[in-house]
């Protein structure tokens, strides 16, 4: 019997333990353990909904404890903090801060990434981030009073990638809908981007359509604007312009946690992503794999797998299959990412999608349904279609009975 330890229960790690648990642990062939500090899983591409008060925890958050029980893997509520490759042991810290070790035969690291402040002065002190459910909740705790305040309140968001765009549009929509009930509720939102266009990593035609939709929602878009410094209530740009705001959020770039660079000699790149071969094995250790945003994984064309939810899901599915081969003594196959396109939600009933290698750019309500389907596909892996159907129906019913935002806006 082998023990597979997966560290991090996000888009990649949770799908992997679900598949491995169902395949191996149910028949007690191999042991599968998830190490994750949080008690609940939130799908990261929806964190902006927590920040905007529109996320439904009751329906869409997943309890690791219950999920582990139903899918036959073990869940340890702890964080990885170190590694001893010779002893095949990882160091973990539990929620009380106690440190212990955990043996493994195979280790999979899937701890994701966080936003990158590019060492911009004052950002960590004066901007909020959306890298975890806790941070998104903290953002909501500060946005909620702004929605209750008299007169116009201003929020600046730095970074017009998927996170920044979706957050700006969601907040604009919440403000617009709330304005129907209370005419004094109004958010002014400025989205700031250093590149020439929003969604700089996406195709140009998509950027245009997304920008048009943002403008329609009343979001002020500032491209070619690089923030040089953040201070209390203001951002100072390269040209010396001061952009004042009641709240500042930073949603630009990605980097991985510094402790990944200190894992017993495992190789990292300048973003602290662990370097792996296309088999997802680390370059220095055959027993250690990395998937998701924390991996720098090469592709046949010389590029690297992008840090996206879709890539994390595909890598999890691939590695689950490869473990079946590996544990039977067979060789494992390389992971090749297949880009199924990009869909960006702009508010509650509109999305822009780029499909077929960017040859087709679609927009509208149907595309927004496609965006929701991507989340439902993630849930399908975790629960199966039966429960997902029940969740969709419940959400519809709740949506028709309750206000769209959290009840604590008064
Ligand atoms: C607000 C937002 C919107 C986004 N929108 C999109 C989008 O529209 N489309 C898209 O493709 N991508 C989007 N992304 C990116 C996408 O969410 C990530 O690419 C994806 O979640 C990466 O999956 P992952 O499993 O590598 O990491 P994550 O999903 O981040 O999971 C990492 C897990 O590791 C855990 N962890 C962290 N440190 C430790 C530790 N020391 N020990 C144990 N566990 C640890 C964390 O608690 C977390 O559960 C968005 C991201 C954000 C933040």
Structure explained in plain terms:
With 410 residues, this protein is an alpha/beta fold. The chain has 2 domains: 2-113 and 256-327, FAD/NAD(P)-binding domain, CATH 3.50.50.60; 117-252, 3-Layer(bba) Sandwich (FAD/NAD(P)-binding domain). It is built from 11 helices and 24 strands. The strands form 7 sheets. A 6-stranded mixed beta sheet has the order 5-2-1-9-20-19. Helix 1 (13-23) packs parallel to helix 9 and helix 10 (365-383) crosses helix 11. The longest helix is centred in the middle third of the chain and has 20 residues, at 162-181. The N and C termini lie far apart (56 Å). The relative contact order is 0.15. The model has no long low-confidence stretch (mean pLDDT 93). Flavin-adenine dinucleotide is lined by residues 7-13, 35-38, 44-45, 47-48, 79-80, 110-112, 130-131, 162-163, 166, 292-294, 307-310, 312.
